[in-house]
Structures are given as structure tokens and as C-alpha cells.
Amino acid sequence: CFLIFISLFYLNALNYISFSEYGGETLQGPAYGPTSHPTASSSTPSSSSAFRHVVPSRQIVERQPRMLDFRVEYRDRNVDVVLEDSCTVGEIKHILENELQIPVSKMLLKGWKTGDIDDSTVLKTLHLPKNNSLYVLTPDLPPPSSSNSGALQESLNQNFMLIITHREVQREYNLNFSGSSTIQEVKRNVYDLTSIPVRHQLWEGWPPSATDDSMTLAASGLTYPCHRLTVGRRSSPAQTREQSEEQCTDVHMVSDSDGDDFEDATEFGVDDGEMFGMASSALRKSPMMPENAENEGDALLQFTAEFSSRYGDCHPVYFIGSLEAAFQEAFYGKARDRKLLAIYLHHDESVLTNVFCSQMLCAESLVSYLSQNFITWAWDMTKEANRARFLTMCTRHFGSVVAQTIRTQKTDQFPLFLIIMGKRSSNEVLNVIQGNTTVDELMMRLMAAMEIFSAQQQEDIKDEDEREARENVKREQDEAYRISLEADRAKREAQEREQAEQFRLEQIRKEQEEEREAIRLSLEQSLPPEPKKESTESVSKLRIRTPSGEFFERRFLASSKLQVVFDFVASKGYPWEEFKLLGTFPRRDVTQLDPDKSLLEVKLYPQETLFLEAKE
Where does this protein have compositionally biased stretches of type Low complexity (predicted)? Predict the structure, then answer.
């Protein structure tokens, strides 16, 4: 701005000398108005002049009208309006009246950066940038459709697809939210994805009714089921002021080659402003990592967020977690999945840090190569407490030699890049890369480390495959042995069950035999004595044939009951429940007769031959 002021002062002085010395008149009108051409009389030099008349080579011409672009949003419509900066706010409203069919009297045009604006305000006086975003409110008009509480409840249960474009990196995120989610929840989710804090988010595409972050998506007027939004990082006050000054000093000049010097001076002035802005910003920047952080994961979260805030979102993906967890992730998986570990050591007080971060770590080729082949872990060495903590971790994991190497590094040798390769029993530091390097050199050293790692990885893969083959054979043998044991156990259990069943049946049989023997003995003892041959009473002689062909005989009193014969047969082991006693002539089933009748009554007197037959 100072150089611009000096240049303008030089032009005015040159104009004043030309017209006062040779024309006797000063330039009338504004400095940036139309050029006043001197008359013949005024252009004649006076007799007292000691200077030769020189026509000024630099002429100031009238600036061309400046065109302004307006994107005006109304509900679900966007209207593009292009006007000269000499037009008024009312002219914009008249154009919108034709496009939106809304009376000017019912229209409130919002989104201006300054207050106290009415329809007669000239756009030039607002010092607007070339591209502007406005929106229309119509509080006196009813909404397009009235929704009752039932429809609102239904909207709360619906899912909205928000297609959010990150402006700086030109990346789209498709996020699903329920209608009951709030605008604040959306912004917090976007912060997790883009690392842009909510207070620094600059949005485009929200409906005009979405004026409160606590409003639900269902009530905000979003287009269902899909709505497009754009988010970017809000410019800092220094950047905003710089843009305004650049737009305000948009002077169109017609000149000869001398004008190039002026343009170069302007560009140089802007660069100085940017440089001083960066310097002042660096004084205000937050630390990369909190001092004495108890949790390494939380410290790495702040490191990643601050790194993105300073150098942009295109940077290595830093592992969030402790150094031990990074070892576990890089070295202790399957051999094919293992990677090298890259440890980035940051130092804010080094003069190389900004260049290394912005030009090395943020290079797309390097970011891609690191993400594919490395697990990247970071630590901030600026604070003495954090430095001591890392040296302790370094001694524990890499040994005192590596820790001493890092301890002796001077501040201006930072940042450092440590390339670590995991081995069977230890971790080996392949390379320590200092900050005074180039992208190509850094890439070559990373690739050299990858060659060493790839050779070791191939050996590990071979060993792992052989080990897995041996383990597979052992597993197959163990499985076959297990199946054999299962079969033997099943066979043994079947035999044991069979033996147990046989034993049970044998026990039952023995019990039944014992029971039958007891019954037989009881019946045998209860039988009346056999009558003698010389008995004077009527005696019946019965001859009984068993199923095996044997015979047994006995004499009974003719007056004895038939039950006595049944008991006698049962005492011989043929209970009448299992055997039937049959007569021969005529053939009859004696067991069907009344057991209380006498032998005389059932005609088994004086003798009879009977035979036993098992019942079915």
C-alpha cells in the first residue's frame, strides 16, 4: 500500500509540473477522472520558463466500468446476476423480481458485508469483491407448502444425503444424516473429515431458513433426499484485508514501458505484505503438540490438526497412537502386510521447518509413496519436556546410540526423518534424514530404504510360508490324530455302553430268576403232601409232559382243587402265567378252567396225561 501511495503521488506531481509550467493551469477534476486536454494557449510555454515544453508520456484515463457477479439464493433456486458497480441495489431487486416472480416490496436482500443498505445504495460505494453471494428472504409471503406436525415428524425420521464438497482440495464427501440431526452435528462431522474447525468453516448451499446451528435438518429446508453443500476454510483477517486492498486498487492505466516498473512494484509490495502477514501469523500459531501430554494419541490428534491448519490437508497420514502401537501396526502383522516405520521429528524453531513441511511433506508424490509403503508417526521436539520424553522412548526402543545421535542434532538440522525397519528381535534405524534436503533426494533415500526392506521382507515371507507349511502339516497330523482318537473313544464308549447294557440285562435276568426261584420254592413248600398209594381216599394220578419232552408225575386227592395242580406245575418252573396246561382227550386248555374246582369236577380223575405249552 505504501508503494502504491508513492506511485500515485509521483503521477500527480508529474501532472502538476507539466500543466503548471507549460500551461499555466492545473488539472481540473478528480485524479482518476477523464483526462482534460489543454488548449493551444495553455500549452504554449511562458517567456520566463527555463524549461523546454515536454508533453507527459503518462496519461491518466478513465477507469472502465467494473463488473460484479452475484449468486442469489432463494429457497431451492439460485439466480446469477451480473451488473456494473455503478448500478444500485434496487436494480438487482428488479432483476430478481422478473426471475423469481416476487414483488420488490416483499423482498429482503440479505448477505451484504456492511449494514445500512437501501435500494438507492450504489454498488461501487460498498467496495464489493468480484464474486458475491446473497440470499432473499420473504417473511411476508407464506411458505410454498404448509407442513403439519405429522409431516414434520415424518421428516425427522427420514435420512438426508448431504453431498459436501471440500473447496480447497476439490473432494466430495457423501454423508447420511437423519432428519433429527442438527446443523451443528453436521459441522462437527465435517471438522473430523476436513480438519477445519467449526468456527473457521465457510459454507455455501444452506437454505436461507437455516439460520441457527441448533436447527434440525428436517426443519432447515434442505432438499430431500439429496442436498449439495460446499465448505471451505474462512480466510484470516489479514488475507481478507489484502483481498480488499487488491480490489480497491484495481486501477486500469494506459502507459508505455514505464508502467511495467509500476506493476512490478505493486507485485513486490503484495509479496512483502504476504511475507509480513506470514511472519505475524507465525508468531500467533498454536503449538504442534501440548507440553507434557499424558496421552500420546491425544497429542498426535492435535499435531495432525495443527499440521493441516498450517500446511493444508495434503500431508502424510500420521498414525494416531503410541510409538509402541505404531511398532505393532508396522512390524508385527503378517510378513506381506508389514511396512517401514517413518518417524517425523518436528521443530518449530528451525529455519528449515516451513520449507520442509510445505514443499517436502506436502508433495503429492511423497504423500502417496509414504501412505503405500510406510506407517508415519510424528513427534514435536520444540518443547524440552516433549524432547526428553521422545529421547527416553528412543533409548528404550532403539538403544542409546540412536538416542545420542538425535540428542546431538542442532535445532537448524531439524526436521528429522527416521526410517525404521523391524527385525525378528530388534528394530533397526536404516536412515536419519535431515531437513536440508530436496524432494528428489528425500524420495531417493526412501526408495533405497524400501529396497533394503523389500529384500528382508522377501526372506520373511519365505520363512513365514515355510513355517505356515510346517504348521499346516502339523495341523493336518493333529487333526488326523484327533479324528483317530475320536473314533477310538467312540468305539470304546460304544463297547462300554454295550457291556453296560448286557450287564443290566444280566442283572435283570438274574433278579427275575431269583424272583421266580423264590416263588417256585414258596409254591413247592405250600403244596399239600402227596397221597400215598395205599390211601383209602380217592386219588387222581396226573402225568405231565414238558415242552422239552420230559415227564413228571404226582398223585393228588380227587378232592384237591385245580389250583393245587397249577402250583405244582409252577414249582417245577412252569408258571401258569407263561404256560398253558392242555388235556389230550378231548383236547382242552385246563388253565382256562376254574382253579377252585376239584380235580373230580374237572374230570381229572382217576388219571390223566397233560402237556405243557408256552403261551404266545
Answer: 34-50
Closest CA to 529 of 557, 552, 493: 557
Q: Are 75 and 58 in contact (CB under 8 A)?
A: no
What would the mean pLDDT of 233-258 be, rounded to a whole number?
48
Going by C-alpha positions, the residue among 344, 339, 301, 343 that lies closest to residue 321 is 301
Exposed, middle or buried by CB within 10 Å (0-12, 13-18, 19+), for 558? Answer: middle
The 10 Å CB-count burial string (b at 16+, else e) for 405-427 is ebeebeeeebbbbbbbbbeeeeb
Q: Which residue has the higher pLDDT, 56 or 500?
A: 500
Quick check: bond before 586 cis, omega within 30?
A: yes
- Give the cell for residue 389: 520424553
| CA neighbor of 323 nearest in space, from 213, 418, 245, 433 | 418
Residue indicated by cell numbers 428472504: 137
Q: How far apart are CA 118 and CA 88, in angstroms?
A: 9
- Three-state SS for 160? strand
Residue 412 pLDDT more than 70? yes
Cell 511562458 maps to which residue? 46
Distance CA 93, CA 91 (A): 5
Contact in structure between 323 and 377 (CB atoms under 8 Å):
yes
* Residue whose C-alpha cell is 462300554: 496
Pair 254, 59: CB distance under 8 Å: yes
- If you average pLDDT over residues 59-88, what whole number do you get? 80
